[in-house]
Amino acid sequence: MGFTLHSVCFTLKVSLLLGSLLGLCLGLEFMGLPNQWARYLRWDASTRSDLSFQFKTNVSAGLLLYFDDGGVCDFLCLSLVDGRIQLRFSVDCAETTVVTEKQVNDSNWHFLMVSRDRLRTVLVLDGEAKPGEVRPQRQNMNIVSDLFVGGVPSDIRPAALTLDGILSEPPFQGFILDLKYGNSEPQLLGNQGVHLDMEGLCIENPCENGGTCFLLDGDTLPFDWTPAAVDP
């Protein structure tokens, strides 16, 4: 009985570990198709908030994320331009642009965070921060739309989009993982042309001895468990 109980407890611990790791392995794969998009519940970045995710790509241009105030004045657009991350945002029609020095179209994982603090927005790429600031009369950003990732639906009227030409932006091609608003995972409202699993990532670095791979902090983590390695 004791051995059986021990086995059940160990199995439960392993199951919990696998469940937590598998949660980290979920993400979005964008194929770079026309009219692809993922739509998340609105990010309340009007005053202070952070958004972060990990990504990997080998292309030099593409739309990462976008939201706006419904065609009036305010927006935030994060995109790939010449292999670098470009952040454009506007508050009360005062607009600025921030571009990273580092190129990211190297098929490696990168960590990116957008930190909003009223008129100041900081772009953080792999620990390196680049701030951007505007000086309008209004102190907060108006946000009406949901958050669009990888592209914007083509059926949205251009008049309802603040940034001219956003529908013509090339779609993102690559992987986005672990998108968070602060410390919370946002609700995915819908998607088109997007794969919602990350199984292909583990195939890139197969584990030994038939073990199962999981993604943790941007690296493939081998979970190579054998019964002989466990004390009875």
From TrEMBL:
<dbReference type="GO" id="GO:0016757">
    <property type="term" value="F:glycosyltransferase activity"/>
</dbReference>
<feature type="domain" description="Laminin G">
    <location>
        <begin position="27"/>
        <end position="202"/>
    </location>
</feature>
<dbReference type="InterPro" id="IPR013320">
    <property type="entry name" value="ConA-like_dom_sf"/>
</dbReference>
<dbReference type="InterPro" id="IPR050372">
    <property type="entry name" value="Neurexin-related_CASP"/>
</dbReference>
<protein>
    <submittedName>
        <fullName>N-acetyllactosaminide beta-1,3-N-acetylglucosaminyltransferase</fullName>
    </submittedName>
</protein>
<dbReference type="InterPro" id="IPR001791">
    <property type="entry name" value="Laminin_G"/>
</dbReference>
<dbReference type="Pfam" id="PF02210">
    <property type="entry name" value="Laminin_G_2"/>
</dbReference>
<keyword id="KW-0328">Glycosyltransferase</keyword>
<keyword id="KW-0808">Transferase</keyword>
